[in-house]
Amino acid sequence: MRAVVVTEPGGLDALQVTTAPMPEPQPGWVRIKVKAFGVNESEVTTRKGESDPEVTYPRIPGIEGVGAVDQADEDSGLRPGQQVATMMGGMGRSFDGSYAQYVTVPASQVIPFETSLPWEVAGALPEMFQTAYGSLATGLGLQAGQTLLIRGGTSTVGLSAATIAKDLGATVLSTTRSPDRAGELRAMSVDHPLVDNGTIADQVRELMPNGVDAVLELVGCSVLADTFRTVRRHGTVCFTGALAGQWTIRDFTPFMIPMGVRLTSYAGGATDLPPQVFQQHLQAIAAGRLKAPVAKVHHGLEQVREAQADVEAGTTPGKHVVLLDD
After folding, report:
1. Angle CA 78–85–149, to nearest 5
2. Which residues of 17-43 are buried (b: 16+ CB within 10 A; e: fewer)?
């Protein structure tokens, strides 16, 4: 089969399109013919050699993908030709991932679905919708009628969370560092786009004097103290990402958390996105209630370098997707 292989860490030229052995599924695993996959920051990190020791080389990157079942155990409940998604769980890190014509993964991290949406739309969804849905459902327990602040709103997870929360019936506030990108947030049905200059608590309190019910924190620890100031008593902050790069707080004390405000986190995987929920998301996109934030579709493995370059540049909002036409 054809695949993109990183033999050793490096620049974009480390992404080599080559011929690789067809992967054989071990017991309890599934082989998937890949139709499309999203390109993620973590794969850029893998290519550069900046991942944790779990990642070894040579490696076929790719932490997510969609396609059709090619081979599966009879007792897996999966059948050849069935549409499926898969993500994370060591994929593209401790074992070869989706930057290939075929990938093998544990059956436990395979999500079956049925849709007539184009493969490039389905391929954009697994990782970002899993993270967004898990943060809102598991991390925050968001309910219809509540107010949600998304800090880091123009990220793929932030855009996905906005459209899921709106479909749920929440009022959504979402941040961007650039005034020019406020329109992108409105296009995803955000009620109140906010320009984040490092402190947003006063802006939020002008709109919601008692504070918001819930916050999805994607910027990180560098702004967490200010984020706490946006939340009502008995509201919740879910720490999911650190786009600004700061994952820890030096000399942290629990007393920096305002009295009555709850702090939680989310870092789940494929099993946190139930098949029926993923199916509902696909149906909602087909019906026009949800929006899939696709930045650009790249055709063929030869365009993986271009896709990673675009992800690094970060100038286009939404998910970069590689579609395999062969």
Report:
1. 140
2. beebeebebeeebbbbbbbbbbbbebb
What tens digit of pLDDT does each residue of 136-168 get? 999 999 999 999 999 999 888 998 899 999 999
pTM of the model: 0.86
Condensed to tens digits (0 to 9), the pLDDT of residues 35-52 reads 999 999 889 999 999 888
State how far the Cα of 260 lies from the Cα of 256, in Å rounded to an integer: 12
Q: Distance between CA 323 and CA 300 in Å, rounded?
A: 6
DSSP run (H or E) holding 228: helix 224-228
With a CB cutoff of 8 Å and minimum separation 6, the contacts of 251 are none
Structure tokens at 134: 């898990």
Report d(CA 105, CA 37) in Å as an integer: 14
Evaluate the CA torsion angle 47, 50, 53, 54 in order and state its sign: negative
Assess whether pLDDT exceeds 90 at residue 272.
Answer: no
Q: How many residues does the chain have?
A: 326
